[in-house]
Amino acid sequence: MTEASAPPIRPRRWLAVLPLIAFLAVAALFLLRLHAGDPQRLPSPLIGKPAPAFVLPALEGSGLAGFGDGDLRQGKVTLVNVFASWCAPCRDEHPLLIELMKRPELMRAGVRLAGLAYKDEPGNAKKFLQEMGDPYALIGVDLSGRVGIDWGVYGVPETFVVKGDGTIAYKFIGPLSPDALRDELMPQIEKALR
Question: Is the pTM of this model over 0.85?
Answer without folding.
Answer: no
